[in-house]
Amino acid sequence: xxxxxxxxxxxxxxxxxxxxxxxxxxxxxxxxxxxxxxxxxxxxxxxxxxxxxxxxxxxxxxxxxxxxxxxxxxxxxxxxxxxxxxxxxxxxxxxxxxxxxxxxxxxxxxxxxxxxxxxxxxxxxxxxxxxxxxxxxxxxxxxxxxxxxxxxxxxxxxxxxxxxxxxxxxxxxxxxxxxxxxxxxxxxxxxxxxxxxxxxxxxxxxxxxxxxxxxxxxxxxxxxxxxxxxxxxxxxxxxxxxxxxxxxxxxxxxxxxxxxxxxxxxxxxxxxxxxxxxxxxxxxxxxxxxxxxxxxxxxxxxxxxxxxxxxxxxxxxxxxxxxxxxxxxxxxxxxxxxxxxxxxxxxxxxxxxxxxxx
Length: 358
Description:
The chain is an alpha/beta fold.
């Protein structure tokens, strides 16, 4: 057990929240709009990035964009704070000392599943790529820095392409940076897929899947820096015509298929897609058995029948992770019994409040 306390101030619908946590799953219930997901979002801000809603910091302040918010958590013997003071960008403190956001990846592995992800297999590749990179970040803490390095060089190269700069000298250094960082990003992604597949529990409720990087450009799984650099140089003419970089790790897609028929996830039923996604999330947590893990499951029981809910809770209770789940009513979590703590959330006059069920 790693996360022992969470404190919120002026975050979303919460004027204030002080919440203790222990090793048991925490099941939060309340009506729609009561503030349940806001707790999960606050917890997701203990990872690098914009959290599970991908929201800008100014949109997370309870009192509007001119106000601020603060999240503070106790992680074992360390104190982590992330805050956005009025008129300032978000910052991160570790034991009250400033650190970059990427330092969060080494403190706590945060995994989440939200209802919008139910469309993962039918939506555009960008969503699957973001999901893959979150999984990869949980397993490879250097992935955030590598991705930032690649994205920075990519933006600069795209600016040259949009400005129709043809001088090769302007491109060489950027392409070398993209190649080195991009090859490492791809190696991390491939290692993450291997780890997830090895950690899957191939049961009837949550089937195992075969995962792969799909080549939108024919080279999504290229982990060779020299090959990436050579390809970028050879494609400058085509990229100039398009005004953007058409090949590289930023074009990768995630593919998944399952069962004896090797059924593609995109062609599976809605229920099968949900079960497959849950299988990957659970496998992600299992693959991190030697790391501190926080698993966030928002409205996870909404489209599961009673048997599958019970099977999910059995797996969650057995994970080497701290878990927080939300749902609209306590009956959705009855199968947990005493294995979980139960928290009721209500909202009055725009402010959320919580009380623990007996």
